[in-house]
Amino acid sequence: MQIFIQTQGFDLSPGLREHVERRIHFALDRASESVRKVSVRLSDVNGPRGGEDKRCRIQLGLPGAADVLIDATELDLYVAIDRAADRAGRTLARQLARQREYRHERPHGADTHAATLGDAAA
């Protein structure tokens, strides 16, 4: 799983990079083989004006499916990262469960049709 981290309005410190990578790996650990790319964008929306303006946007690239986009805005950037990573993990698990469910469903009447063909040959 590749993790790309971008910042807007501030520099990416080694500690912040480590926090993002640790939280992403923890949140996506169970399904990491299903994710080809993770893009994390960290930004200070309001700049020096203050307020609830630290944003973490996570985009998960999944093979054969639409990308998953998670957005969290908080007063504290670390809280925004934690919330976005948690939501990304839950959303990914839900989407993968839906994909497994869809693949395992059979079209209605498939077994009946095969039985009818077998009866006709006998």
TrEMBL record:
Organism: Candidatus Accumulibacter affinis
Compositional bias per record (Basic and acidic residues), positions renumbered to this chain: 98-111
Transmembrane keyword on record: no
Protein name: Ribosome hibernation promoting factor
Database matches in InterPro entries: HPF/YfiA_ribosome-assoc, RHF-like, RHF/RaiA
Keyword match NADP: no
Subunit structure and binding partners: Associates exclusively with 100S ribosomes, which are dimers of 70S ribosomes.
One MF term in the entry's GO annotations: ribosomal small subunit binding
Keyword terms of this UniProt record: Translation regulation
Pfam families assigned to the protein according to its UniProt record, in alphabetical order: Ribosomal_S30AE
Top-level taxon of the source organism: Bacteria
GO cellular component: cytosolic small ribosomal subunit
UniProt-annotated stretches for the region Disordered: 98-122
One record GO biological process: negative regulation of translational elongation
The organism's taxonomic lineage, starting at the top: Bacteria, Pseudomonadati, Pseudomonadota, Betaproteobacteria, Candidatus Accumulibacter
